[in-house]
Amino acid sequence: MAEAASQELLLAAAFVSDAQYNRNIPFKTSPEAVRLYYLYNHWFMRTATYFFIFLNLSLAVFEEPAVYPLPFLATSVVEVLCLLVFFGRLMHFAKITRRNVFWKDTKNICIMVAILLSLTDLAIYGALRIYNIKSIRWSRIVRPIFLVNFAESRQIRRAFRSIRNTLPEITYVFLLFMFSLLMFSLMALKLFGERNLQTAEGLPYFRDYLETVFDLYVLVTTANSPDVMMPAFDFSSWYALFFIAFVIVNTYIFMSLFLAVVYNNYKKHLKNEIRTLAYMKRRKMIEAFNLLKEEEGTQFVVREAQWKQLVKLVAPDISNSHRELLLRISDDEQKGFIDKKSFVQLADLLNIQVITLKIRSHPLGRWMPRVYKSAVSQFLRSVVRHRGFVWTYDVIILINAIFIALDEESPYISYAEWVFLALYIIEILLKVYTYEPRAFFGKNQFWNWFDTLIIFAALTATILNTTLKSTTKYNSQQILDIVFILRVLRLIRIVDSIQRFRVIMNTLINIVPTMLTFGGLTLVVYCIFAIIGMELFHGKIQFFPANSNAPYALECGNPALKDSLFARGKYCKNNFNNFASSFIVLMELTVVNQWHVFANGFANVTAQPAKLYFIAFHIVMVIIIVNIFVSFILEAFFVEYSLEKSEVETAIEQKIQELGMGVQEEALQDEQLLDNMEDADNDLEGEGGTKTQPAKGLVFKIASKRYRTVDALLQRMFEAEIPLEDEGPSFEEILNLSPTAAVPGDLTSERAV
Amino acid sequence: MAEAASQELLLAAAFVSDAQYNRNIPFKTSPEAVRLYYLYNHWFMRTATYFFIFLNLSLAVFEEPAVYPLPFLATSVVEVLCLLVFFGRLMHFAKITRRNVFWKDTKNICIMVAILLSLTDLAIYGALRIYNIKSIRWSRIVRPIFLVNFAESRQIRRAFRSIRNTLPEITYVFLLFMFSLLMFSLMALKLFGERNLQTAEGLPYFRDYLETVFDLYVLVTTANSPDVMMPAFDFSSWYALFFIAFVIVNTYIFMSLFLAVVYNNYKKHLKNEIRTLAYMKRRKMIEAFNLLKEEEGTQFVVREAQWKQLVKLVAPDISNSHRELLLRISDDEQKGFIDKKSFVQLADLLNIQVITLKIRSHPLGRWMPRVYKSAVSQFLRSVVRHRGFVWTYDVIILINAIFIALDEESPYISYAEWVFLALYIIEILLKVYTYEPRAFFGKNQFWNWFDTLIIFAALTATILNTTLKSTTKYNSQQILDIVFILRVLRLIRIVDSIQRFRVIMNTLINIVPTMLTFGGLTLVVYCIFAIIGMELFHGKIQFFPANSNAPYALECGNPALKDSLFARGKYCKNNFNNFASSFIVLMELTVVNQWHVFANGFANVTAQPAKLYFIAFHIVMVIIIVNIFVSFILEAFFVEYSLEKSEVETAIEQKIQELGMGVQEEALQDEQLLDNMEDADNDLEGEGGTKTQPAKGLVFKIASKRYRTVDALLQRMFEAEIPLEDEGPSFEEILNLSPTAAVPGDLTSERAV
Questions:
Q1: What's the gap between Cα B41 and its chain centre?
Q2: Cβ(B590)–Cβ(B624) under 8 Å?
Q3: Gap between the Cα atoms of A484 and A490, Å rounded
Q4: Which 3 state secondary structure label does DSSP give A337?
């Protein structure tokens, strides 16, 4: 009986945890499956999966054409190992879901097909290799599938789905844009083609239709402006009007139109997905509730003891007092049980980061109270707490900046570096002396961590460098570079001193995790294009050091590049000869400028249709993904800039006010702490304020603008449209849904925005 | 008595007209002032003012340094004339407003100061000229003030106000961005400065701090990517990471942040302004109502006769039937009077473009009914109406496109041009024969007008060209160019055949008038920068034709440009030697690419600080104005893409359905017309459907997505936030406001978005 109850608790905790992290895995509810499900979600298993995914992707660095060549046997053994891990992970997943669910999911089919393809290709390639027949490792292109399709990469999959849904609308705008481009090209051909003009490189000017289309497509991206206009402009000033009209129509209007279409559709589809997520979350919470519910009068409720055990299981790392706070919020009137509505909120409550500020005395105050509480010590601590202390260090940083900019040769300046290092270390020590060390290095004290890490890294690197210099007379370039970078990074701290800058910086830091989704998206696109690029252009362009005597060293080893802009710009190192180089070329293509020089260069050494590769990359990366990135940043900033708090956050804050005050009244004798608390954001000045308090007080604070998960930020974005406390019928509606059924049609279907 | 009544009607009409066009001129209500006010708003007076503003601006083309030089006397006489006109316009304005209002308005003060400054400068310059002392015409920079400050340029002023309000927030982001730039520059200096690297041009690489900052600022705009990276990348592949980090932080994140801040603030401020406008409009309508109201039972109303006279005065060009329709909407229950609420709506009603489709027989059908109604004619007309007719012509256009792309030399192909022209003319004639000519050339039949104009212009130009060729053996380049352009423009028509493209095109056409605001804004910024640029860089760079023997012809006449990218790119014609050239250079700087080549080129021929001019232009034009343009396009597209209709439009449509059906039932025997009407958007296929109807039927249709004024579109944008039918207290609130008082504080003050 007790075991059955603990089974139910475990199952309920799995539901709550899924709701909290927005996982949507339809697992079986048998005890064994639930245990396997816990194992499946264990951080170690997930980290290991990611590790093998990235290991698999990074194989491209070691395989032919390699940055660091490894024998084929080594890479193929690692690949087989990775594939085995993926297969194992998939089998694990199969164990916890019902068979029909497993086979209906395209993700799983994709992974299996990808594993099979990889193995087949590996076998064929290996066999051919034995007979010394060179073939293509075409299956490498399927590797990003593992990154996209493993259940953990929800955000990347969602982004891909958004793109797929946006495609039809983009296609129409793109066709219209292409029509405009073709029309303008025809006009350019007629107007300039028969004038026998020449470009600055002496090439024929608008003589061939396809060349004209390409040149004008490049002009849309502005990469060849104003060069493409100059010959016509030199011929007659009036021809400038043609190019002005072209740029206004195609660059300004059509490109904005692309952004508008992408933004509008992305937002719409994302909103639908998030709405679905919100409903799924609620459904899971209700299932958890139904498992634990007991009858109390006319309604079903969850008892306090059960609830506490549940929270302990779901979030083992939160403190007792934090759990108590959550209980007081859920069980508002202290009735000893939690009703359905409050219970459903739990997933959101757990997602809000509540900082527990422990007001405890400084350890030094306990170990040697006489010294710590002496007049000198008191004075020292009041100095450190004074505003002037911060200002002094701001001035020191500025002076440091000037010293960095000055020439390093003078010995006085290189000694000054030691002085600055010492000053910074003293600052950190003083702060730790004044404030409580555990508060100083709290989870959310980003800037303190940043400072300390930078300073100690700089100290280590500087000492290492000096030792090397004095013992071996050898100045390690790498270490010196790192010292330089750390020295300059130290200066960032000054931003933290200015309130307005801190707000912008915090906003930037907050959207970093969500930007990682785009990192993943970009990685997938880059991987695919890099692998194709290496097959197409490998070895065609070589880089030779400046003093090389190799034939055609100035033409990147390829006579076809003679007199080309590619060779003249000394772009030889931008080639597809290995995975790392390919990534850098693709990055440069993403930045857009001079991409036509790359396209022409690689087309010269292979064939003209090679330009299509570059055009395809531009369309996929710049027109679609960068625009989605911009849309996302815009939307995220609008949310961050509007300072309103969510309903749940407001509820928690109210509760903290109600309860927290009570706690504080015992612990505090002056109101200083509270006053400081309210304006300190990620600042420390408040926390150390209770100088002589022996009591272990507790203060809660909401890290209001931090999101634990990307989904939380997304939900925040569309909060206004998604009712968080949808009561009555919708609850029943969700209850009536079977757990395995897809989300009801009306939730996923598009609604007018 | 009658005169007093007509006075009041005139005054009320002035109020209604102001409300309709969102004019906010606090004119005096004396009969004389009202008459002067009518004159002030007369289209001729407004057009004349604009004419003189542009004449004044275009003087820069004829003054030294001139595109077309005119004697100083001529330009100064024209300038004095312009200033006199401006002064006259200002005096006219002074006559119609109260004195205290007039002197409180900064617009008027600005204009007066600008006139005074211009006259002073003109006098000084003229006097010095007599003694042959060369001085600067510095007052030319104030000329755009007239464009901004005359009462008609509301939109441009609003845009400037938005920019001013956005500045503080942009400044903080900009400072943070500058900080990041300075930090990265310091790092670049330390990392690469002591490596003795060289750029592709053989210049020192990151050796000087200011140079480094400039180079990295250019990299933010992507204009020197990847060139700026190559030397470091060639030295060590790891250094690519520095540039990747730089581009991600500064180009992608900070530039998106600028767009986000500009967009967010622009939207917020615009919304406030539009809300104010909406309240002002309502206030004016209530003033008009109060002038005309009569007592009717317990409420005040406006009688039908009065209302009709008012509408006749306000909108003299709308048809009787249209007016009748408006009356039926306003006086819903046909009580013979209009109550306050309906009366206030009138301004919005007048702004909705209702198309009156007159169903009348073809004039040929009346003049020679026997021929027109013969079987052959009937058949012909049914052919033209058939879908296949449109498709046939689409095929013809495509064949035409191929012929245009082919070589012109073959005589067959040049004959083919005549065949195509003939085919197009036949098409237009057939359509006019089939459909009613006045319907075919209706106000909203954009594509018909476009087709006809293009075809007849092409016909004229082709005939002219052939005549010239056969008589003088001389092929005029200009005419030939125009023929080519017209020929290609003809192909645009194919877009109109595809429904999806037509929707996008109509959206684009609809936002054209609103984009003109940005045209005005751009004109002001360009004028100011062009005049400064001419003073700074005039004559420093010269353009010589390709075969010139002038000294330093290849270095643009300036030895300082030897080996520079500017000279190598053959950019000599991009100079500030006259107003037109300056505009083209500024356009190229707006497109951004290669702007650093310009900056370096002009800095080489003058002094290094000249780069500040180019940086300032980049910040003003690209970071601020282009971002506002993009924000505006985004917002406009979101509105256009969401297909909902406004409340007033829906009301009118309902009424049209109610009434229109009645009208049609008499006129129609088949339902064909109605059926066609509903899916025809700007199409003609429906209108000619009543083949044998002698009755003069009337059908109304809302040109739903057309906006007469920019303000109408803007109001549409923020409609959701501005209650259109705000009843009760807010009415009284507005009534209590004195007409001269500024808008109440709470309306203009910012509200949380």
A1: 21
A2: no
A3: 10
A4: strand
Q: CA-to-CA distance for B261 and B269, rounded, in angstroms?
A: 12
Tokens of A422: 């010492």
d(CA B596, CA B203): 15
pLDDT, average across residues B1-29: 84
What is the rounded CA–CA span in Å between residue B17 and residue A285?
A: 60
Buried b (16+ CB within 10 A) or exposed e, A60-96: bbbbebbeeeeebeebbebbeebbebbeebbeebebb
Question: What are the tokens at A597?
Answer: 């020089």
Token match 């008459």: residue?
B35
Those of residues 404-433 in A touching chain B at CB distance below 8 A are: 404-405, 408
- Spell out which residues of chain A touch residue B484, defining contact as CB-CB under 8 Å: 187, 190-191
Tens of pLDDT, residues B464-473: 888 887 777 6
Torsion angles phi and psi, residue A661, rounded to 5: -60, -45
Q: Which of A688, A87, A67 is nearest to A437 (CA)?
A: A688
A487 in reach of chain B (CB within 8 A) = yes
Q: Looking at chain B, how many residues does it have?
A: 753
Comparing CA positions, the residue from A531, A516, A613 lying closest to residue A144 is A531
pLDDT digits (tens, 9 = 90+) for A283-320: 888 889 988 888 888 888 888 888 888 988 888 888 78
Query: Which residues 597-626 of A are in CB contact (within 8 Å) with B?
Result: 626
Question: Is the distance from CB of A595 to CB of A588 less than 8 angstroms?
Answer: yes
Q: How confident is the model at residue A671 (pLDDT cuts 50, 70, 90)?
A: very low
Instruction: Locate A433 and state its tokens.
Output: 């002396």
Helix (H) or strand (E) holding B634: helix B627-641
ipTM of the complex: 0.86
Distance, CA of B705 to CA of B196 (rounded, Å): 63
Structure tokens at B539: 């004559």
Query: In the A/B pair of chains, how many CB contacts fall below 8 A?
Result: 216
Q: Closest to A641 (Cβ–Cβ): which among B172, B222, B264?
A: B264
Determine the residue among B462, B512, B594, B750 to mutate to test chain A binding: the one whose Cβ has the most chain A Cβ atoms within 10 Å.
B594
Rounded CA-CA distance A102/A95 in Å is 9
Higher pLDDT, residue A136 or A409: A136
Residue B700, H or E segment? strand B697-702
Q: Which of A63, A95, A92, A68 is nearest to A79 (CA)?
A: A63
Q: What gap in Å lies between CA A559 and CA A551, rounded to an integer?
A: 9
Interface membership of A456 toward B (CB under 8 Å)? no
Length of chain A: 753
For CA atoms B139, B144, B147, B149, the dihedral sign is negative
Total Cβ atoms within 10 A of residue A180: 19
The CA distances from residue A370 to A365, A379, A385, A424, A690, in Å, are 8, 14, 21, 27, 17
Check residue B702 and give left, alpha or beta (phi > 0: left; psi -120 to 50: alpha). beta
Neighbours of A124 (CB within 10 A): 14
Q: Do A638 and B264 make contact, defined as CB atoms within 8 angstroms?
A: yes
Rounded Cα–Cα distance for residues B335 and A375 (Å): 91
Nearest Cα neighbor of A348 from A671, A668, A719 is: A719
Phi, psi of B359 (to 5 degrees): -90, 95
Nearest Cα residue to A96 out of A157, A18, A172: A18
Tokens 């692309």 found at: A258
Closest-CA distance of chain A to residue B401, Å:
9
Q: How far apart are CA A451 and CA B25, in angstroms?
A: 59
What pTM was computed for the model?
Answer: 0.85
Q: Could you tell me if A359 and A438 are in contact, meaning their C-beta atoms sit under 8 angstroms apart?
A: no
Q: Provide CB contacts within 8 A for B681, sequence distance 6+.
A: B502, B506
Judged by CB atoms closer than 8 Å, whether chains meet at B257 and A637 is answered as yes
